[in-house]
Q: What sequence folds into this?
């Protein structure tokens, strides 16, 4: 799969309510991935930045991989 055109934006929990799911790769609030303390999530899209994300920092695929590799995004498997 080619991720060269894919972009990501990290959002806070309070910003998640403003997501226009018709403009991003996620289909609903149920498909969002959250960090461990559920204070951050992210959306992905291709092409121009959707208007509801205006002014937000865009991350490329490799940058997002680096971000989610951080401890705050890693869950411990249940025992």
A:
């Amino acid at each position: 799969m080619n991720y060269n055109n894919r972009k990501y934006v990290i959002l806070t929990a309070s910003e998640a309510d403003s997501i226009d799911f018709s403009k991003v790769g996620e289909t609903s609030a149920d498909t969002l991935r959250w960090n461990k303390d559920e204070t951050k999530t992210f959306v992905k899209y291709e092409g121009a930045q959707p208007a509801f994300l205006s002014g937000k920092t865009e991350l490329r695929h490799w940058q997002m991989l680096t971000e989610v590799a951080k401890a705050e995004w890693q869950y411990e498997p249940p025992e």
Summary: The mean pLDDT is 93. The chain is about 10% helix and 20% strand.
